[in-house]
């Protein structure tokens, strides 16, 4: 029986690379993003048999309709990957950044829960080996300067996914948290600074898929960034502040689309 995988943020970057990876393994895919033309082009590239849903992940009614359609056509998914996300620099001292702050939280945190929610009852009923996967970020491990909303959203995602993991444990659905370091995608192409251990999206997708298959509870990819993340956690505030106050920042005012 072919694997059934539902992926949000499939129109570019990591989500697209994951779609290509799982399609090559013979999976049936549900592909979500706002840009329908990108999804249609990807679907054609992958053979045209996949289901495309052009929607905003922060819209729970649209997510419910997409999940219902996917379940009706293919059955409960084996893997749901909440990958859609947005990033831009925000600073609280500028009131005009508050709307950007809200959209980042809506997409990266609420959108993740809205992706999983309509699938959980069917996945519970179906039983077997199933996974809910959340794409967080190392930016959620410590607050980064200039990325107040993004860091907060990814910290919230990591903690949310941990709560969900405990809730899903009795019914056997594994919750996998992936915190990527730097992956080469349109999101990072705008970064005006050097990115250590930058990984091509195709290689990232392979490593993500391996972590998903193993049912890891939490992993940082690439592993070198995992070592950095562990050290960051250990740094006392006085040292962290000294080292990171002038760290390079994501520019403000980036379009979120
Ligand atoms: N690249 C990195 O280094 C890195 C590092 C850590 C974490 N991440 C995380 O990895 C995930 C994927 O990022 P990426 O690097 O692949 O970025 P990307 O190339 O910009 O892709 C983001 C994807 O999310 C979709 N998306 C954004 N807002 C959406 C919304 N409201 N509704 C539906 N889809 C939406 C976009 O599609 P549409 O615009 O068509 O809607 C696009 O397909 C994000 O959660 C990001 O935070 C990335």
List keywords for this structure.
10 helices; Rossmann fold; single chain; binds NADP nicotinamide-adenine-dinucleotide phosphate; 47% helix; alpha/beta; two-stranded parallel ribbon; seven-stranded parallel sheet; 257 residues
Oligomer: single chain
The DSSP helix count reads 10
Question: How many domain modules?
Answer: 1
**Any idea what the shape is?**
globular
**N- to C-terminal distance:** 36 Å
The distinct ligands, each listed once, are: NADP nicotinamide-adenine-dinucleotide phosphate
The main pleated sheet reads as: 7 strands, parallel
Radius of gyration: 18 Å
Order of helices and strands: EHEHEHEHHEHEEHEHEHH
Any guess at the CATH architecture? 3-Layer(aba) Sandwich
Low-confidence stretches at least 5 residues in length (pLDDT < 50)? none
Strands, total number: 9
Strand line-up of the largest beta sheet = 3-2-1-4-5-6-9
Integer average pLDDT: 97
Beta-strand share of residues:
15-25%
- By secondary-structure content and strand pairing, the structural class works out as alpha/beta
Q: CATH H-level name... which superfamily? A: NAD(P)-binding Rossmann-like Domain
Helix content: 40-55%
CATH class: Alpha Beta
Describe this structure in words.
The protein has a single domain (4-244), classed as NAD(P)-binding Rossmann-like Domain (Rossmann fold, 3-Layer(aba) Sandwich), CATH 3.40.50. The mean pLDDT is 97. Helix 1 (13-24) crosses helix 8 and helix 4 (98-116) packs parallel to helix 6. The protein is 47% helix and 16% strand. Strands 3-2-1-4-5-6-9 form a seven-stranded parallel beta sheet, with helices on both faces. A two-stranded parallel ribbon has the order 7-8. It is α/β, with parallel strands linked by helices and 257 residues long. NADP nicotinamide-adenine-dinucleotide phosphate binds next to helix 1, strand 2, helix 4 and helix 7.
